[in-house]
Design brief:
The protein is an alpha/beta fold. 27% of the residues lie in helices and 24% in strands. This is DUF1611 domain-containing protein.
Length: 363
């Protein structure tokens, strides 16, 4: 049996969002002679504060980090062209905090704008006194019931990081909620953090999930068949929550290997009725629409960061054969209703009205 931590030491730990579903209210010990696996909980000491100066805690608050702090994060990976590429360490040697949501990994490339990553010294893997290492997988939701009906589902994909995917999902959730629908939203890939989740909630989504609810701290390097299973499970939980429409966000850009393969996976095609592309510039919309069609998806329109520019919006509209929606316009019941009606024209709102009629009245 391993010796358990003293309660006063545990109380001082800063525990990250990424591991929030694991129960730490029990006797905890330390395992120091086993290699880490994806999702294992590690107690680490901050040795130098770099790019990430704050840690997002389980409740969403971002806590300042100081050298000497003991933090609880999850071992994982990161794929972020605008920040870091980082891999799973093979041992408990010094590593890095690669995401504010709480991911420990080894950085092997960074964007030139990024500072040196915050440095961590692993103390050991958190375990039960009998030596069983804690992993985020133990906090995963159980398998959902098999859906008995189809829920209209719109996926938002992007040309790159920071193309406006999450804003597009949140705006669409807002518009559909205002149209009288019960909306579910989920993020099926990415790096564990609460920002997108809270954005969906604030927009009015009634049921919200991300991959951390299904036992992953991040999805880079995770086999695509497993990601497809997670996507199906998340969607199943939304349907079980009695949503009338489901919105799915897939992280990173269309050229990210996992994103590209997942977009082509039969399981995702079975779920999705249409895709909205979020892009950072007008030229990207042309390539993005082509790539989505090559992967077999119906493209419902384009939105995202580029619509902040009237000139870029004009360029995209001239080049595309699908609608271009200003991101904020998707918050309108009329525009959001028009998007959904293109794939589910007969859907009724919670008040019993036809969505197309509600959208027309709202306009």
């Amino acid at each position: 049996m391993l010796p358990a931590f003293a309660a006063d030491r545990v109380a001082r730990w800063k525990v990250a969002y990424s591991v929030r579903r694991v129960d730490l209210n029990r006797p905890l010990a330390l395992a120091t002679h086993v290699p880490p696996r994806h999702g294992d909980l590690v107690l680490a000491r901050v040795t130098a504060v770099g790019q990430h100066v704050r840690l997002e805690l389980t409740a969403g608050r971002r806590a300042e980090l100081y050298p000497g702090d003991e933090i609880v994060v999850g071992y994982g990976t990161r794929y972020s062209p605008d920040q870091f590429e980082a891999e799973l360490p093979t041992d408990l040697s010094p590593c890095h905090l690669v995401a504010a949501g709480g991911i420990a990994a080894l950085v092997n490339a960074k964007h030139s704008r990024m500072a040196t990553p915050t440095a961590l010294e692993p103390v050991g893997l958190l375990a039960t006194p009998d030596g069983s290492v804690l992993n985020v997988a133990e906090g995963a939701l159980p398998d959902p019931p098999r859906p008995h009906h189809r829920v209209p589902t719109v996926l938002v994909a992007g040309t790159a990081m920071n193309a406006g995917k999450s804003t597009t999902v949140s705006s669409l959730a807002r518009g559909l909620t205002r149209a009288g629908l019960r909306v579910g939203a989920c993020k099926i890939t990415g790096t564990g953090a609460g920002g997108d989740r809270y954005s969906y909630v604030d927009a009015g989504a009634a049921e919200v999930l991300d991959f951390t609810d299904l036992g992953l701290v991040s999805t880079y390097r995770v086999p695509v068949p497993r990601l497809a299973d997670i996507a199906v499970a998340m969607h199943g939980h939304l349907v079980a929550g009695r949503v009338q429409v489901a919105l799915i966000e897939i992280a990173d850009g269309l050229l990210c290997t996992e994103t590209a393969e997942l977009l082509g996976h039969p399981a995702l095609h079975d779920l999705v009725d249409g895709v909205i592309l979020a892009a950072g510039d007008a030229a990207g919309t042309v390539t993005g629409v082509r790539l989505l069609r090559q992967s077999g998806h119906r493209v419902l329109g384009a939105s995202g960061l580029f619509t902040s520019s009237p000139l870029a919006t004009r360029e995209a509209r001239a080049a595309l054969d699908v609608p271009v929606h200003l991101t904020h316009e998707l918050s309108s019941p009329a525009v959001a209703g028009e998007v959904l009606a293109s794939v589910a024209p007969g859907i009724e709102t919670s008040s019993g009205g036809d969505l197309t009629e509600v959208a027309a009245l709202a306009s």
